[in-house]
Specification:
The protein has five helices and eight strands; from the N terminus they run H-E-E-E-H-H-E-H-E-H-E-E-E. By secondary structure, it is an alpha+beta fold.
Length: about 200
């Protein structure tokens, strides 16, 4: 009798285990992953640039934009390296210029490593330059508003840089073959050739 009770107890236990396991198949297993946090969220695309001022020998290399947001500290450093080397004055540069430069480097297939020939220009510096005969310097240059920059892109011919800027049509494009630089600005699209 005792063995009969033991067998019935074991059968009942096995039946309960089978029922419990069958019910567990209907329910999803608990997730071992937690909800995404700020640490695991995908990184925003970054834009970086390297600028070398050919007159002051200053260099800055940094991330200036994450996603749609410009980094104010980075822009301040970029403004400084793009200063008027004649007067030592700096000015807020149009952040869209740095976006343009980054895009041009991407289009050329090289790192965004630029040499600045001229960034910001004070009114006094611009007037002195414009007064020189044959200089081709505009009296109301966008350099004075921090909306223009004259550059070379390392590892990219200036003629190719000019062509890419013309294709982009994001502002004015000046090509100075003899001086070996390209002017880009955030004004209306126009083009010219200088010395």
């Amino acid at each position: 009798m005792r063995s009969l009770l033991l067998r019935q107890g074991l059968l009942a236990l096995c039946a309960m285990i089978v029922v419990a396991c069958a019910g567990a198949e209907d329910k999803p297993a608990p997730s071992t992953q937690s909800a995404p946090s700020a640490e695991t969220a995908p990184a925003l695309p970054e834009r970086s640039i390297k600028l070398f001022n050919t007159h002051t020998n200053e260099t800055v290399s940094l991330v200036f934009k994450r996603g749609d947001d410009f980094d104010p500290d980075a822009l301040e450093k970029l403004n400084h390296v793009a200063l008027d080397h004649r007067s030592g004055e700096s000015h807020d540069m149009d952040a869209k210029l740095f976006d343009q430069l980054f895009d041009l480097a991407q289009a050329c297939g090289v790192a965004p490593d630029f040499e600045i020939i001229s960034g910001y220009r004070s009114a006094e510096s611009n007037a002195k330059m414009a007064a020189r005969e044959g200089s081709g310097v505009a009296k109301k240059s966008l350099h004075m508003q921090g909306r223009a920059i004259d550059v070379r892109l390392r590892k990219c011919a200036t003629s190719k840089l000019r062509d890419l800027a013309l294709e982009a049509k994001k502002g004015g494009v000046g090509y100075y073959q003899r001086s070996d630089f390209v002017h880009v600005d955030t004004g209306s699209f126009r083009t010219w050739t200088g010395k």
